[in-house]
Amino acid sequence: MKRVLIITGVLLVLALLAYPKITEQSADGGNSSGQNSESDPLSVDVHVVEPQVFENKIFTTGTLLANEAIELRSETSGKIVDLKLEEGRQVKAGEMLIKINDSELQARLEQSYFRIGLAEVREQRQKQLLERGGISQEEYDATLNELNILKAETELIKAQIDKTEIYAPFDGVVGLKYVSDGSYISPTTNIANFQSINPIKVEFSVPERYAGVVEVGDLAIFNVQGQDEDFEAIIYAIEPRIETQTRTMRIRAKADNDDSRLLPGAFANIELILEEITDALMIPTIAVIPELQGQKVYVLRDGKVAEQQVSTGIRTESDVQIVEGIAPGDTVLTTGLLQVRIGMPVRVDQVDKYEEGEL
User: What is d(CA 291, CA 52) in angstroms, rounded to the nearest whole number?
Assistant: First the structure.
């Protein structure tokens, strides 16, 4: 027991003698570490904020459609006696394209005119007799009714004759014809395609999240295979519903096609410009830090790190618009965001700026 007490006392004395030196070394080590951090600050990359022209765009695909298009068909059956269809020819609205044989109807119409003439004479005579009391009102009414029936039958024959003539319903171009002069046709016969392609329509769809953004009058730029240039179309109609299967909204635009280079059915790559901002403040998305109260960025002020609350707007794949919180000329940190602290000095390794037209 005595030996244990002696050994314990010796160890205690050694510990008391070594404590000041350990404390001094720890203090020296802390000071030395502080000096190194001050002499060797954290390296970061930054982005200098400058106003840029930014276009909020959607890229999608669509199909070209004729402005108006029909299949020419007859309302009645018969033999073609006059075929004015010329494939590829431009025609005006109201121009006759096909005449079907109506000789039988014309004969019935002439017969009906004779019967009407006799009925009118009979009606006039009975009207005079009615005024003199020679016949009853019932007899006169029967004669007048017969006259009206004959007139109605005449109008029916005229309507049947009208069905033997096919006219162009609008200005357009005749496609390939499938009948010849003298062919017998019926309402099921496809005579030819007839369409108007100036202007031409562009139909496409956009995701439903853009339902409140796309508006009538927006500009759509598109291109098609076989054409080296881009074409412009203006949105004129938006389907007021979302397709449940695709979760997209269907849109149509119109483009000038004076030279008829754009053909219905062509596949189109479309760039829809939703909005153009001439002085957008864009920064890399990675620079924005989300937090409970909103979003923030780290900026450099007088060579030291400062925190700045921001409000964001439009986002792209790599950048985000800042609508509130920073101003042109501010320097935003894009790296070292987890290591920096407010008031810490840093060393800038790389400065990033958007070149004109990069966005």
Answer: 27
For residue 322, how far is the Cα from the chain centroid? 26
Residue with tokens 């519903």: 241
**Closest-CA residue to 191 (of 281, 72, 31):** 72
The secondary structure of the chain in percent helix, strand, coil, rounded to multiples of 5, reads 30, 40, 30
Beta bridge partners of 92: none
pLDDT digits (tens, 9 = 90+) for 112-162: 999 999 999 999 999 999 888 888 899 999 999 999 999 999 999 999 999
- Asked whether 80 and 181 are in contact (CB, 8 A), the reply is yes
Secondary structure (3-state) at 28: helix
Residue 189, amino acid? T
pTM of the entire predicted model:
0.65
Spatial distance between the Cα atoms of 31 and 278, rounded to a whole number of angstroms: 52
Q: What pLDDT, in 10s, does the model give residues 238-260?
A: 999 999 999 999 999 999 999 88
Query: Quick check: helix, strand or coil at residue 6?
Result: helix
Dihedral pair phi/psi, residue 22, rounded to 5°? -65, -40
- DSSP for 189-232 reads ---EEEEE-SSEEEEEEEEGGGTTT--TT-EEEEEETT--S-EE
**pLDDT given for residue 210 in this prediction:** 87
Whether 4 has a pLDDT exceeding 90, the answer reads no
Closest of 51, 43, 54 to residue 351, by C-alpha? 43
d(CA 58, CA 49): 25
